[in-house]
Amino acid sequence: MASSLQVGKYLISPIIRTLGPDRWSAAVSIRSGRGSMTHDRVMRLQPVFGNRDDAARHATEHGLAWIDAAGAAPMPSLATP
């Protein structure tokens, strides 16, 4: 597994596997919470990559984009008119 990256409450971990000579697949684990309240989302990604570094970079970027999209969701307004 490639190096993990802590971003706020999330831990992004690229998961890279070799599929044969010059063929690498990418997945990403996005974990949050602690102990029995841990939630781990794992996504397998496309395409197949020609080297390990490109696969790891793609997985990390995908994880960061997911966190950004999750944080960008509008919060409900609690103010009364």
UniProtKB/TrEMBL annotation:
Q: Which residues form the DUF6566 domain?
A: 8-70
InterPro entries in the cross-refs:
DUF6566 (IPR046696)
Highest taxon listed in the record's lineage: Bacteria
Q: What is this protein called?
A: DUF6566 domain-containing protein
